[in-house]
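Summary: Need help interpreting a holo structure output

Steps to reproduce:
1. Submit the protein chain below together with the SMILES for flavin-adenine dinucleotide.
2. Request a joint structure prediction with the ligand placed.
3. Inspect the structure token block that comes back.

Expected: a single structure record containing both the chain and the bound molecule.
Actual: see attached output.

Input attached:
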Amino acid sequence: MVTITTVETLQEAAANGGQGTAFLGGGTLLMRGVNYGDQDVSHIVRLRQPQSLAGVSLEGERVRLGACATMATILRSTDVAFLHAVARAVGGPAIRNMATVGGNVYAPHPYGDLAVALLALDAKLRMSDGSEMEMERLLATRDTETRLIESVSAVRPSGDDFRFLKVTRVKPRGASVLSIAAWLPRRAGRISGARIAFGAMAPTPVRAPTVEAALEGASLDQNGIDRALQSVANDLNPPDDSLASGWYRKEVAPVHLKRLLLGQGTR
Ligand SMILES: Cc1cc2nc3c(=O)[nH]c(=O)nc-3n(C[C@H](O)[C@H](O)[C@H](O)COP(=O)(O)OP(=O)(O)OC[C@H]3O[C@@H](n4cnc5c(N)ncnc54)[C@H](O)[C@@H]3O)c2cc1C
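--- attached output ---
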């Protein structure tokens, strides 16, 4: 049997954590699991007013998304227009109305499309205990029992500095064969400090450090990106699943990265 506790604050929710307890975001994955008999979850903790953590606010050159903001919230906000294509790539309309930012960060392979974009945009998480942590670190540790995500802060890219591409087998919106997000700041036409993230290429979204290094100082044209395309395989160790084999994912990754970098992909 699953028990449900309703609390007022995220801190209370975190204090209720422990073995078998899960925090309820939009419930698109959690409730599906429970309804299908997931025995790992025996206790669900939810907020009485999740909309109190669903804001989108500008903070200088960054933007902060509340953990309970949904994909639909993102699509309604012109402040995060650069994330609209990403939010639109998550499930169908019913899923987007419920799926939250916090839940997407914890979504298992092959999900987590928004998390891929946030990882490329240098995301930092504010946790329920007031601490800040790099999203990259959370993805590596998956610490869910003692701290919850309160909000996520990410860079607000300018112009066409941010690009996102998702490859699916089911159109218009299926789970990812792979997804790629790229933040490509440029100085005098040369890439400076690029962040490239891949989805469905590992158990969680991952950055591609060799690709990023190969892009440093390069121009965004065929010659400039050649070295980066050749190094993609060094950064990826994709799993097999029912959508694609790891071999296939690795083979097609440079093709899609090229399209994205040359501006031929879906933004
Ligand atoms: C039919 C279908 C299609 C889907 N398509 C896609 C897709 O195309 N792309 C994609 O990325 N995903 C997809 N998903 C997966 C899912 O809907 C999204 O990833 C969604 O963002 C998960 O968020 P949620 O709020 O529903 O999470 P929940 O189901 O509420 O929670 C998921 C996990 O995250 C934890 N969690 C939630 N919020 C927090 C928080 N604030 N702090 C700490 N832990 C937290 C929960 O405890 C749970 O372990 C799909 C799901 C379904 C059912």
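--- end attachment ---

Reviewer comment: The two ends are 44 Å apart (CA to CA). The first strand starts at residue 3 and ends at 7.
Status: needs-info
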